[in-house]
């Protein structure tokens, strides 16, 4: 009779639970029983482990073998328990010292030939082991760089079960066959990246370079659109959600694709959070163990609610809102998304995380992102253009704009109506706009000032500050929110929208600081739009007045401001 135990980690979303793998050998008919709420993949590990042990030169015990995974109430899935099961069986058979593996965390899949294959979710698994007090982990050699990101943990990377046995028995570590020649993909990495996982959500790979790197789209490529560029800078500085409305071809998608590159690089803690999510989702590129740039996720408008917020069969998997954590979630053609999918974004926009309840369990996934919406004013896109010949009936336009619900738009702080590009801007006669590097420097300076101002608080960006603190600690200058206060009294602006008005101005990236909204900073802290042609009617609903206000800053930037509901989307139409 023999008994041994080792440890592994079960992932529930991006959170890990240390699992004790216990192996018990008793006299009787040779059999292999696996208990502890395993899924189909884990049940199949019995055949994989047996073949791997035999092909590694060790004898398989011909006794009654029972392997238990504790705690039994935690769902366990995947092939990452193979190496821990093999070590526990070898310890029970006294091939290795049971005391040597008692406090050892082993994560990895075994091939039939004994080679160790990499698995997804190494970083969150090692983080969970470190938080539980374990200091020694064994992982596949291809994932060792990802595991070493966790401090104060000794990481051993192995390529085969033979190497692990040699290390545990103080033997000579055998040399494994060298990997394939350079230029050929490593077949061992086949299960590390899920094919199409990033493409299905429109995820753009982050570059190791900064805003001045030549391998990313530059903001100076956008012709004109100075008001929209200004709003993009405000959104990046304060972490405010942004809505771009305008006709096709005006440059809404071009602006959105350049937003991630004016954001500052991720901090160490943010990088670990983003890397953990991408590792679990299977979109972490091999050779890039740490994500350094804010992610950019642009799902197609046919995406389902599960693909946006997460879900799937069994244990829910991260969705687009989690893949865009600490980055940008761009919803192009937002009015074409299903209403259920869009309304599912309301909770993560408020809390910064998403909770998914399924029969297999409840998963909490991080989802603190900057949302950017883009939509046409009507199905044909010409409703906002004077004399453009829009053929959409008024009822069709109202139904189209009503797809973006009022509660969702109430969480959007900035709304910009993007004008068509003029001929002079398109031909370059007006000069090129500022480059991404220049704008990124101003955004970084603004965030540094906001970080210094919020140093003694739990918040880092203006958009994260609650309304009570904005009203008491950083009150607005007298008259700065007069328009917003009038609209609040008339019911055109909700209390949540008014809070966004208080927090969205900044300080300005070009100003020297400040504590609250000031007239000299932005023409309006809660909505801005390019100056409209003379005589053009803004899309509006019953009871709305045609009002436009301005300021010296607005006149200089070429923008006019109006209440957030006046774009035609949202409540009060």
Written account of the structure:
- The chain has 573 residues and is an alpha/beta fold.
- Helix content is 30%, strand content 15%.
- It has 22 helices and 18 strands.
- The chain is elongated and about 85 Å long.
- The N and C termini lie far apart (77 Å).
- About 12% of the residues have low confidence.
Radius of gyration: 28 Å
Give the overall shape. elongated
Give me the oligomer status: single chain
Q: How far is the N terminus from the C terminus?
A: 77 Å
The percentage helix is 25-40%
Residue fraction in strands? 15-25%
Instruction: Give a count of the beta strands, DSSP E runs of length 2 or more.
Output: 18
Mean pLDDT: 81
- Strand-pairing-aware structural class: alpha/beta
Strand count, sense and barrel status of the largest sheet are:
5 strands, parallel
Q: Report the total helices.
A: 22
Q: Give the strand order, joined by hyphens, for the main sheet.
A: 11-12-15-10-16
- Contiguous low-pLDDT stretches (5 residues minimum) are 206-210, 506-515, 517-568
